[in-house]
Write a structure and sequence with these properties.
10 helices, homodimer, globular, mainly alpha, DNA-binding, about 230 residues
DNA sequence: CCGCAAAGGTGTACGCTGTACGCCTTTGCG
DNA sequence: CGCAAAGGCGTACAGCGTACACCTTTGCGG
């Protein structure tokens, strides 16, 4: 019987659960985010969380999406290079602010809408900057983990953007509306390589050679760091 | 009372434990490697494992070291570029053969002797190819995760090569004997930046700009993949 | 050959995890 | 006002890593 003036405990909702999980992970690391510990912080019994979160994987996924969705928007000015660079630094800042992010992202199996949205935005910068869809595909792989906070190849399991129900045509239509650039890349890639959309060995060697070439140029130029 | 002819169970040793853990992880993934499941495969009680392995972290670490120590030696011929390239492909092959390796490596906090040995070998290729110690440092960071199967920055906790007892001078001597190149890099870096040996922000932007420059060259050249 | 210390294997037990299931309480809407 | 839906609770279970005490086997010095 809570007194009239007493602050009757607010009901839980998904956002409150995720926000508290974020705070807990920031403070004590991802391992400290157990259903019991999180419930205790919300002054609730552990099983209450399951009314707002399907299971622990969904909780972690929600945390990741919350961070990605909160990425700052870069200024819509400058060259593709400046804009991609800024997006990379924004992603890096998120990783500095949330050290658990790397581990959380790598524990996921499917691309969420938030992840696809970020990928689509970066792909859009390249394409608007004059990159072909094909080249955009490969440079996105090359950026990979280092720049995203997540590596495209960590998501071989496919996408997860809502309804898993039939009608592939409708799904495709929805995808090209919400994520036009990544959809274009996927279509282009599967046209070139019908067996599967990505040839991982090719991507690996593509990036490796890009880097080795760049190293050779620096070596030949007598590059050094402290000026 | 085992009969004379019956194959009296062989005693456990660390190598047998690690080998069985490898097999289990290859077959069913890293999550399937629990102390209990591993013990069952070895027809032994779970606690018996602790006579050969300090704890689970030590077990996983031992598995990683076993794989890295088994990296094939590249042919000692060709340019630095060919040799580094081959080492990268060897590391990638290990990851294809052991899909759990990425997760296992990223759960570690300290560099083992096996990891340091691999890093030292790659650093040695650059230095022998005419790279300065300084430049070698930065290109090693740039290769990072993508090419190693592990990212240097995943090991901010320092090294773990045996005795943690005093006498830093003796430790330094031992390090430069066993891992001359990484030691040279660490000394060079701390001379340039006394506060800490790596400026992560610098390394991040270094690699990012290397990649962005490379992308721009490909774009300007009208690069495309299928020839 | 004996004996004894060291090394190896066993059994039990504890605290922690995620979560299935059933019950009760609160909420919001027709 | 009444009732279905949503939210929160309590109990319970299987699995985890591992501390601790105990017994058994091994190998070596006398």
């Amino acid at each position: 019987m809570p007194e009239p003036g007493s602050p009757q405990r607010r009901r839980l909702d998904r956002d409150r659960v995720l926000a508290e999980a974020l705070a807990l992970a920031d403070a004590d690391g991802l391992d400290a985010v157990s259903m019991r510990a999180l419930a205790a912080r919300l002054e609730v019994v552990p099983m209450a969380l399951y009314k707002h979160v399907a299971d622990k994987e969904d909780l972690i996924g929600g945390m990741v999406d919350a961070v990605i969705a909160g990425y700052a928007r870069p200024a819509a000015t400058g060259t593709w290079r400046e804009r991609v660079r800024e997006r990379a630094l924004i992603a890096r800042a998120a990783h500095l602010a949330h050290p658990w992010l790397r581990e959380a992202i790598q524990s996921r199996r499917r691309r969420s809408a938030a992840v696809l949205g970020h990928m689509d935005a970066v792909a859009g910068e390249f394409i608007a900057g004059g990159f072909s869809v094909d080249l955009t595909h490969h440079v996105m792989h090359a950026l990979g983990n280092r720049v995203w906070g997540f590596s495209p190849e960590a998501f071989d399991g496919g996408d997860d953007v809502g309804q898993p129900d039939g009608d592939p045509a409708a799904l495709l239509r929805m995808m090209s509306e919400r994520f036009p650039h990544v959809t274009a890349i996927a279509l282009d890639a599967s046209a070139r390589n019908p067996s599967g959309s990505c040839d991982e060995q090719f991507e690996f060697e593509f990036t490796l050679d890009l880097l080795l070439d760049a190293f050779e140029r620096l070596r030949a130029a007598g590059w050094e760091s402290s000026g």
